[in-house]
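Sample 1 of the test manifest.
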Amino acid sequence: MTTEPDETELDAFFDAARRQPGPSDDLIARVLADADAQAAAPAPQPASKPTRKGVIDALGGWLTITGLAATCAAGLAIGVALPSAVMANSDGPLAALLGGESYVAGFDAAFFIQDVGVSE
Amino acid sequence: MPPQNDAELDSLSDDALMVLFAKGDTGAARVLTSRLLPRTLSHAQRVLGSRAEAEDVAQEAMLRLWRVAVDWRSDGAARPATWLYRVTANLAVDRIRARARLAPIDDAPEPADEGQSPADAMDDASRRAALDAALQKLPERQRQAVVLRHIEGLANPEIATALDISVEAVESLTARGRRTLADLLAGQKEALGYDN
């Protein structure tokens, strides 16, 4: 059977602990010196959020971005709309750009096709 | 904001003093030190059982308080005192775990309490020594909970926050710790020279 602890006796020990002498002058001085050093240290600069202007400048400015966007759009349009015309149609728009010749005919690939006997 | 005098600072909350210190008011640090350092030192000493180690831990805990001041939110949930108890508890645990790897250090004597007679001071010192010896036999969590509850006088929810455990766990730890302490200290009344 357990007995209840003698709380009066324990409290006498706790009371003695609460009457413990406070920090020494030396410790207080060390703590305040730390505080002074911390107060004198430059405050850390908050990390700046990236701004729209910063991103544009990093990419070379509006002129560069416009050219980049146009190039990307043209490449995408050509890739989506013209693959069959590029490979097979001598009347397509790319052929017209090349002076009326078939795109294939302008390249060694055409001769390769003829050599191996592939006919259109 | 210009620095305020100590009387004005004394009327401010710990949170407000943290904000002032972050703005460079070293007077706020003086008031915070006078309020928080004694309890930080007492907590560390009871948990560690060593004055010298407790002073090191208290200084380190206060240094961390100064460092965190710049990010302190006066409307935040944590109070500086509770935050310090938590940091002190963790630093003390680190010390306890490091003891196995470190050589023992010469402990610093307690400074004399000028408000007591030499006989009373000696009695109190003996009781503290006996209490410290008994506390060192408790498991670390029980020791922390007993010190914060019965010596520092924190409420259970505040202890739960400081130790990052539930209120129910605090109640269990303090009850078991108190029971064990009573067993360990039983019969020391005569040896320690008090009659009631």
